[in-house]
Request: fold
Amino acid sequence: MNRDYTAADAAFMRLALDEAKKAAAEGETPVGAVVVVGGEVVAAAYNKREQTGDITAHAELMAVRAAAAARGDWRLSDATVYITLEPCPMCAGALLASRVGRVVYGAKDPVAGAMGSVVNLPRYPLGRSPTVTVGVLEDECRTVLQDFFKKCRK
Reply:
């Protein structure tokens, strides 16, 4: 894991934040994800668990599914996935299984984070592991989540 990121990483994370804000506007936990290949966005998504009743409708899973469908291949070794919140174990496992080349996330998840906070799935010998970059626009990503849950508690 590293904390060094580029201006392009920040720009793509802003797109993921836009997705997270869409989720919040629809009453979903505000997490957004963007899949980028060769500097181009191939998929973007946000959490839709409440809308769909599907526990697997996490932003990163939906984005990876859309990217795989758009490309006609589940192998995403040349892709970078930008996510506003550290992936949970389910999502981290899917990212590893899809052979994503790089994962970039904003805020750490101290409850269910599976790419460094609670557990670090990429460290296990489960095949090829992505490069992981953490803390991209971390404060903005955390604020979107905190603001959403403050409103929910009122």
Remarks:
- The first helix runs from residue 7 to 25.
